[in-house]
Amino acid sequence: MSDTIDTNALGEQIVGVLKTIYDPEIPVDIYELGLIYDVFVNEDYEVKILMTLTSPNCPVAESLPEEVREKTKSIDSVTDVEVELTFDPPWSQDLMSEEAKLELGML
Questions:
Q1: Which residue ranges does the record assign to the MIP18 family-like domain (predicted)?
Q2: pLDDT given at position 34
Q3: Out of 31, 38, 77, 90, which residue is the most buried by the measure of CB atoms under 10 Å away?
Q4: pTM, whole model, 2 decimals?
């Protein structure tokens, strides 16, 4: 039996953790809201998360990326986490999942 961890499985585990983080102004998790643009995991189990906020003036601009970093870092096999904020492309409701739109009564 090997001690290696499948980076795809780890990616799924990270997504599971991201789905426990909610935007305080919208009752939907940040993953379903479309705030997470990409999750990269390398062979050393270092994670880079590319994310955005609903607006550059978002009141949680400092705390939300830190919460993403801390919760992702809490996964046992993760060795390091970098969270990069981007506003290119800017977030729009088009990035929301069908589940999020349904939750917010937009469907």
A1: 12-84
A2: 97
A3: 31
A4: 0.90
